[in-house]
Amino acid sequence: MPVDRIACIEAFSVRLPRDAAAVTGTAGTPAALAASGFDYRWSETSSTLYSVNFEAALVKVTLESGSAGWGDAQAPLAPDVACLIMDQLLRPAVEGQDFDGSPDTVRSLRNRMYSTMRVRGQTGGFMLDAIAGVDIALWDLAGKARGTSVADLLSSSAPKSRIPCYLSGLPGATNTDRVERAREAWDAGFRIFKLFYDRTEEELFDLIDRLRAALGPEVSIAVDALWRLDGASAGSFCKKLDDRGALWLECPLAPEFPEDHADLAAEIRTPIALGECYRTRYELAPFLASGCAQWLQPDIGRCGITEAAGLARDVGASARIVPHISIAMGPQIAAALQFAAASSNVGLAEYNPAVFSVANRYLHRPLQVAGAEYLVPAGPGLGVELDESAIRAVAGSIDVT
Fold first, then answer.
1. Is the pLDDT of residue 201 over 70?
2. CA-to-CA distance for 306 and 300, rounded, in angstroms?
3. Does 24 or 230 have the greater pLDDT score?
């Protein structure tokens, strides 16, 4: 195959206004936000900033031949930061490099980007988010160069064409409202629901009990604790989850404490789920060593396709993998689906209707959910085509040259 070269990388910082109240309880705004004059506001229940906008960092990688691939870094806040890293640090590492469309070349370029600031301690956070965006774009290019899907490039067997999904969050002012939303989703085929611990403990367990009463024994309910638990509160909280047969408990404790997670996992029956905070297998290593996480939730917009595929290979059948899909545009969602389609230990993915509808607004052919299953996009690369003119109309292009 003729060798092409990477001609340029262009980053786009996206901020889209949205009705924050309407999406409270879902991805990106899982809890009510305190009043503030800033677009970034403090959560009323968890120690975290959230944006009132829909924010993303998109990246376009173009070859000298003119072929282009698109990526999407996880950037629910400050997308300018990821874009500036792409422009000032990743362009010098990647532009001008040979590109033959092989998976080995993509992996080599990802490792080259990782090495740019490694000795300076920049091996996580915004740096890895930016790398993930470019990594996704490179896989998109690789698939296009080889005339096949990313899933085909990743897998030695036929990839899956459908990925079951769970409904992430139930918006509504009251538990009655939320149960009604769940009934509508149930009628559409959903059987797995994730609830955020976004209000009081009593309100959360009342909602679980109401959902079980309304939907019956077939319903599966997972809980995202939003890192709100600690040594004093985790025991009684988790006993209530155990008694209710929760599918998993996500993000129970502060992410810096793997030993505390291991201790908690040993004390409870409910499986622990984690992964969205971590960008590499190095960060996840202590959690994997203890076996405390039975569900792993890599966010492809933070770790990229290369690292997610490596994680899936490493853990094998020791844990179930369910991609975390939060605020994301089309390339990031498609990347998660291509990864899921290629990975034997992925049988479920996160779904948020509000995010999905925004992402589809900027695609020529929308991504699809049928019943409670994603349809893996067909076609070369990621299988999606961004409406570039629409993106340029709403985004800022980061270019300091």
1. yes
2. 9
3. 230
Q: To the nearest 10°, the Cα dihedral for 328, 334, 335, 337? A: 110
Ramachandran angles phi, psi of 355, nearest 5°: -65, -45
Q: How far apart are CA 246 and CA 212, in angstroms?
A: 11
Query: Which secondary structure element, helix H or strand E, spans residue 400, and what is its range?
Result: none
Structure tokens at 377: 């996009």
Beta carbons of 330 and 384 less than 8 angstroms apart = yes
Burial of 180 (0-12, 13-18, 19+ CB in 10 A): middle
Judged by DSSP in three states, 169 sits in coil
pLDDT score for 400: 37
Both tokens of 138, joined, read 């490179």
Categorize the per-residue pLDDT at 2 as very low, low, confident or very high, splitting at 50, 70 and 90: low
The number of angstroms, rounded, from the C-alpha of 81 to the middle of its chain's C-alpha atoms is 18
CA–CA separation, 88 vs 95, rounded Å?
A: 11
The per-type count for the chain, helices as H runs and strands as E runs, is: 15, 17
pLDDT tens figures, 220-242: 999 999 999 998 889 899 999 99
Question: How many C-beta atoms lie closer than 10 Å to residue 172's C-beta?
Answer: 16
Nearest in space to 149 (alpha carbons), one of 378, 366, 341: 378
Decide the pairing of beta strands 368-370 and 373-375.
antiparallel
Mean predicted lDDT score pLDDT of the chain:
95
The answer to whether residues 300 and 323 touch, using CB atoms and an 8 Å cutoff, is yes
Strand 349-351 with 368-370, pairing: unpaired
The answer for 274, left when phi > 0, alpha when psi is -120 to 50, beta otherwise, is beta
Q: Tell me, what amino acid is at 91?
A: R
